[in-house]
Amino acid sequence: MASIAVCPGSFDPITYGHLDIITRGAKVFDKIHVVVLNNSSKNPLFSVGERMDLIKEVTKDIPNVSVDSFQGLLIEYCRSINANAIIRGLRAVSDFEYEMQGTSMNRILDENIETFFMMTNNQYSFLSSSIVKEVSKYGGDISELVPATVEQALSIKYQK
Asked: Is 4 exposed, middle or buried (0-12, 13-18, 19+ CB in 10 A)?
């Protein structure tokens, strides 16, 4: 049986921290589905379609990565594609506390889908999409935080 993992997130926008987790996960699993969450409680800068397009562009050279979106329970999405794993990136202890709650609930919903936590590369341990948007909004240099495609998309959004 192929190992199929889901790497969910809002990816608003995708950063080098996200790419670190996706790239490393792609070395471990046969197939990685990077899945954009459509979270109605958040007010994203990019539409789901725009985020998917950015992810497709920056992962185009990773052959076992595909990009999708979903709304609803992550476990239901995993079941729909026969995924047997979820990959979650961790930056700090505070991430673990939050992720443990979701993982515990997912285990109750389906004990056959495992969650794997990956520590992000130390150089990205501070990095979040929110901080990237904030720095970009005020004209700061984000070239070491996101791929050029994402940097350009942010520049267009903020009309720099």
From this structure: middle
Domain at 4-157, CATH from 3.40.50.620, 3.40.50.720, 3.40.50.300, 3.30.750.24? 3.40.50.620
The confidence score (pLDDT) of residue 136 equals 96
Please tell me the distance from the alpha carbon of residue 131 to that of residue 114, in angstroms, as a whole number.
30
pLDDT number for residue 99: 83
pLDDT band at residue 85 using 50, 70 and 90 as cut-offs: very high
Task: Point out the annotated binding site for ATP.
Answer: 10-11, 18, 89-91, 99, 124-130
Is residue 51 flagged as an active site residue? Answer: no
Report, as an integer, the average pLDDT of 23-27: 97
Write out pLDDT tens, residues 146-158. Answer: 999 999 999 999 9
Q: Does residue 155 carry a catalytic annotation?
A: no
Binding residues: 10-11, 18, 42, 74, 88-91, 99, 124-130
Please work out, in degrees rounded to the nearest 5, the angle formed at the alpha carbon of residue 144 by the alpha carbons of 127 and 157.
80
